[in-house]
Task: structure prediction
Amino acid sequence: MGPANRNSPGSWGPTRDVSVLRAARHNVITFGELRDLGLSADEIQYRSDVGRLHRKYPAVFAVGRPDLTLDGVFFAAVRACGPGAKLCRVSALRKWGLIRDGGTYRIDVAAPRSIKPKQGIRLHRPLCLGDLDTTIVDEIPITSVAQTLLDVAAPGIRFDVGRLVHEAGVQEVLDMRAVWEVLARNPTALAGRVAWKRQ
Result:
């Protein structure tokens, strides 16, 4: 059945598609958001079949074209991991502008333990990640600069944290008081990690 047929999902075309485009953020939209706009599962599938939507994750789509900006890639990964998910670690460093190339083949996302692994996403399961340690940048939920620096100071993650702290200061995205505050909220986090007092 082609889009010209009144019973085809495509027959509800341009107006719905404009609504989808307007609702998308970073050119990304979720299945739930599409349903909230009034599209049925068949309409969503039709748009996916004809290339109006491009599935990035099981319930997350790029709108219109498959390629996304870096922010779109980050936003799609976070949305794929549901409410409470945050961009973190190396990907957060990249978003904060503290490194230039962290790769996009695996996106670091802190997510609840109920979230199942997803291709292209490296899931992290923090025991506690409060509101004070997270924020939103360009509509993307993300760990704060201080929390991100603490996370990448973990053994096995090879970063010069002193250089990162310096860069954060140069870019004026970090108040050193925030570092001490995040450490106070995570008193056991220093075990086996870098000596922050040297920074």
